[in-house]
Amino acid sequence: MQDWQTIIAQCQSLDELEKIRIELFGKKGYFAKEFEKLKNVPNEEKPQVAKDLNKAKNSLYSLLQAKKDDLLQKAIQQKLQEDYVDVSLYSPRSLKGAMHPVNYTMDKIIDYFIALNYAIETGPLVEDDFHNFEALNLPKYHPARDMQDTFYFKDGKLLRTHTSPVQIRTMQNQKPPIRMISPGAVFRRDFDLTHTPMFHQVEGLVVDEKGAVSFANLKFLLQDFLHYMFGDVDVRFRPSFFPFTEPSAEVDISCIFCEGEGCRVCSQTGWLEVLGCGMVDPHVFEAVGYEDVSGYAFGLGVERFAMLIHRIGDLRSLFEGDLRLLEQFR
Ligand code: PHE
């Protein structure tokens, strides 16, 4: 009889081992033949011979399995060795990644409010009429809806035109007090130097007991925030209108960006609008079932901030993915 144990032990490859397996355990293999021979063994010896045969079969089978695991491990190790890539190797062609200016600006804004313990809330990009308009005191056929060039779906849903619907969703799901910002993408049908159909806003909302939140608080907060963002600028509040705030204001900063450059970003007034804000309109609280509260809200466009911080002239260039632009922001 052949010394199967040695044959298995000396086997060097999985292919070879498979051949051995078939030779041993295959339909016409060694053990099949040996069991076949059993019928010629005298009856009284049969049990013992069969027992020995089974034992030998089981032990060789385990041996074969162990060898197979062993060879598999070796094969994996060898493959790893062959495929080894030294990721730390210096390549003169490798390009370093960098933050996109919009993300950089977004993070900087968020950092400010996180430090003041504001919660970050998010909402769906595909909104319904109620959250995007109705609950924000913009009933159907209200002319102020025209301020927002809306993308509609056939079923009446729409792409949110601002982050204000997140105010509504947050108030619907939480009891006051509320102190939140909501960063995210918004959509409007608009495309020129300073408008892209998709852009980003950060919404802010603070609600507390009636009388606990005032316009003075809002003013202080936004002044401090704008100094954090833009340094030593003048800030002014200009009366304005939003259906969801009353009173409402737009916030301008003094134009420090263009000295000697022939100013494209600032209007002739020397002021630059950067924020919308106001005290939350009572109709909005009514729509979400809040009573005896007061609050303020504000909203800003992130791209606009990014353009100012990085002195970018054409908003559209932020979304073209042109490395010549992006590489400047390492
Ligand atoms: N949602 C307003 C816009 O997109 C901005 C805003 C938010 C104004 C909150 C006031 C209060 O134009």
Can you describe this structure?
This protein has 330 residues and is α+β, with helices and mostly antiparallel strands. It has two domains: 81 residues; 229 residues, Bira Bifunctional Protein, Domain 2 (BirA Bifunctional Protein, domain 2, 2-Layer Sandwich). The chain has eleven helices and nine strands. The strands form two sheets. A seven-stranded mixed beta sheet has the order 1-4-5-9-8-7-6, sandwiched between helices. It has a two-stranded antiparallel sheet with strand order 2-3. The longest helix is centred in the first third of the chain and has 38 residues. It is elongated and about 110 Å long. The termini are far apart. The site of phenylalanine has 11 residues, from strand 8 and strand 9.
Compute the number of strand runs: 9
Mean pLDDT: 90
Strand content: 15-25%
- Residue share in helices? 25-40%
> Mind telling me the CATH class of the largest domain?
Alpha Beta
Number of helices: 11
State the end-to-end distance: 75 Å
Query: What fold name stands as the CATH topology of the largest domain?
Result: BirA Bifunctional Protein, domain 2
Rg computed from alpha carbons, rounded to a whole number of angstroms: 37 Å
Which residues sit in consecutive blocks of at least 5 with pLDDT less than 50? Answer: none
The CATH fourth-level homologous superfamily of the largest domain:
Bira Bifunctional Protein, Domain 2
